[in-house]
């Protein structure tokens, strides 16, 4: 853009009187606008006074004359006022040029096409205002990270598939081919079809947000910060992703397996020492182990991990024993009430209705923040004897059993426990218990499947689990025995005696 020299403002000095004292002012015209800037007290004297210089220059129609002597008290003589006026006018022109450039840049910025990255950030801020669950936002943030960002834990950096493929593209120019190329890049990393679909769903949500903002801006209802992204079609809506595999039958634990898991945790069988490899071992550079690692427990060293694990179990302190017993109770309560992990971690003793044999689920921990449950509704969950027994044992501990204290907490501080750490201990306990590998959330699926297998009505299961739709609860129908239906089908297919019709008469 060419630089335009500012026009001459032709400033001149004038004298204005304030409180009986004279002041210099710079007066000039900027286009059709007249501008005045006060410069400071004028070293002048009123005409006829003893301080007026004989034959001195006059100002304001002869009312004020040059004053004798050197200016004092911050006053300015004519020459000083002229020099200051030049500085003031120069500053004014510079400020005006800067303001004009800012307006031009803002106009250009407002008119230029916004990139997908800018749209994604606006969508993310919208989710914050909307009150989206913190754990959900954590997942979104992970998918929207820029390529090359270091992981918060461990080594390595993010691939940033979405931003690498779409970030710099104007949102209005994103095509179905762009989205399909993104999905293919993710699929090529051996990601599951479900993971690929999650990326497509998020891109679709971001573009839908852009379409809504575009419609609002064009209708004049966008408000401050609204923008016309130029979006009218959602490319992710028509893009073809990898074929989704049909959902398999849910695998769940039997009650005996739940108890085996709880006993493994209670006995401390999940406690293991980490191997310490030799400095020259290739495992330190990502290769296979080529040494005999040591397993240290305090000052003791073991070469057999089983010996180290046994030592850890046999020498647990009181806090570790209580923590392990609490983990076991968490497994039982989760499997026998169907609470989500966040709901379990937010459970307080005030939520336990011993007389009514029920739990009130009104809170959940999401990414370390206490929020409402996933459904947004408070529900009451029946407490079977298996869950009551686990809770009763916890209620006998010496600390943290007051009405408003957490049921599952740090046994030393009473603060909420880390859900990620609990899931890690759960995974190790699966090996010790000799059960198949499932996620912690599958304890909730165990609850629904066992109820369905017992013949419980879907409506009852839906209410206890806090599902928004009965279609979600139907997921557990696979566990229901088909014996009753098979018996009815047998009757339907049984041969029947068909009566002989009378012969027709002539």
Keywords:
hpI Integrase, Chain A, single chain, disordered N terminus, 506 residues, three-stranded antiparallel beta sheet, DNA polymerase, domain 1, elongated, alpha+beta
* Residue windows where pLDDT falls under 50 for at least 5 positions: 1-6
In CATH terms, what is the fold-level topology of the largest domain?
Answer: hpI Integrase, Chain A
Query: How much is the average pLDDT?
Result: 88
CATH class of the largest domain: Mainly Alpha
Q: What report would you give on this structure?
A:
The chain is α+β, with helices and mostly antiparallel strands. It has four domains: 12-111, no CATH class; 116-238, DNA polymerase, domain 1 (Orthogonal Bundle); 255-267 and 316-479, Intergrase catalytic core (hpI Integrase, Chain A), CATH 1.10.443; 272-314, no CATH class. It contains 17 helices and 14 strands. It has helices spanning 78-111, 116-130, 134-143, 161-166, 176-187, 193-219, 235-238, 255-266, 305-314, 318-337, 341-345, 385-395, 419-433, 442-453, 458-465, 470-473, 483-493, and strands at residues 12-18, 21-30, 33-41, 44-46, 58-59, 64-66, 275-276, 294-297, 300-302, 352-353, 358-361, 364-366, 369-371, 379-382. It has a three-stranded antiparallel β-sheet, with helices on one face. A three-stranded antiparallel β-sheet has the order 4-6-5, with no helix packed on it. Strands 7-8-9 form a three-stranded antiparallel β-sheet, with helices on one face. A hairpin with a 2-residue loop joins strand 2 and strand 3 (33-41). The chain starts with 11 loop residues before the first strand and ends in a 13-residue tail after the last helix.
């Amino acid at each position: 853009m060419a630089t335009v020299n500012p026009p001459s403002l032709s400033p001149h000095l004038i004298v204005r009187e304030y409180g009986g004292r004279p002041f210099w002012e710079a007066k000039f015209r900027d286009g059709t606008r007249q501008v005045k800037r006060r410069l400071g007290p004028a070293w002048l004297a009123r005409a006829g006074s003893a301080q007026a210089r004989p034959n001195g220059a006059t100002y304001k129609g002869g009312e004020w004359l040059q004053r004798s002597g050197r200016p004092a008290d911050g006053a300015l003589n004519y020459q000083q006022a002229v020099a200051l006026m030049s500085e003031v006018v120069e500053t004014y022109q510079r400020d005006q040029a800067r303001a004009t450039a800012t307006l031009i840049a803002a106009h250009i910025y407002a008119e230029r096409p916004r990139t997908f990255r800018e749209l994604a950030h606006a969508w993310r801020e919208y989710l914050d205002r909307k009150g989206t669950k913190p754990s959900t936002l954590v997942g979104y943030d992970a998918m929207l990270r820029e390529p090359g960002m270091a992981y918060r834990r461990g080594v390595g950096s993010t691939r940033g598939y979405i931003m690498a493929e779409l970030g710099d593209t104007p949102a209005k120019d994103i095509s179905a081919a762009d989205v399909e190329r993104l999905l293919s890049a993710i699929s090529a990393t051996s990601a599951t079809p479900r993971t690929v679909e999650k990326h497509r769903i998020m891109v679709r949500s971001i573009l839908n947000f852009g379409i809504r903002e575009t419609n609002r801006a064009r209708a004049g209802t966008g408000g401050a910060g609204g923008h016309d992204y130029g979006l009218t079609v959602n490319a992710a809506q028509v893009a073809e992703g990898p074929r989704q595999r049909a959902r398999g039958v849910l695998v769940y634990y039997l009650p005996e397996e739940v108890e085996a898991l709880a006993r493994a945790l209670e006995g401390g069988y999940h406690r293991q020492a980490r191997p310490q490899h030799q400095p020259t071992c290739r495992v330190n550079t990502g290769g296979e182990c080529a040494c005999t690692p040591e397993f240290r427990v305090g000052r003791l060293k073991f070469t057999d991990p089983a010996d180290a694990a046994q030592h850890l179990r046999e020498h647990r302190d009181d806090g570790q024993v209580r923590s392990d017993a609490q983990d076991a109770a968490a497994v039982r309560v989760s499997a026998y009430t169907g609470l989500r992990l966040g709901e379990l971690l937010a459970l307080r003793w005030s939520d336990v209705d011993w007389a009514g044999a029920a739990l009130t689920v009104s809170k959940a921990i999401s990414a370390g923040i206490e929020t409402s449950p996933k459904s947004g509704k408070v529900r009451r969950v029946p407490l079977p004897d298996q869950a009551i027994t686990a809770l009763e044992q916890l209620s006998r501990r010496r600390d943290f059993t007051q009405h408003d204290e957490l049921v599952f907490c740090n046994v030393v501080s009473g603060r909420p426990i880390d859900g990620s750490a609990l899931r890690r201990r759960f995974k190790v306990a699966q090996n010790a218990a000799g059960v198949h590998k499932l996620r912690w959330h599958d304890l909730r699926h165990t609850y629904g499947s066992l109820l369905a297998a017992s013949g419980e009505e879907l409506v009852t299961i839906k209410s206890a689990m806090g599902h928004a739709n009965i279609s979600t609860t139907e997921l557990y129908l696979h566990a229901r025995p088909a014996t009753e239906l098979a018996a009815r089908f047998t009757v339907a297919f049984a041969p029947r005696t068909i009566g002989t019709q009378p012969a027709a008469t002539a």
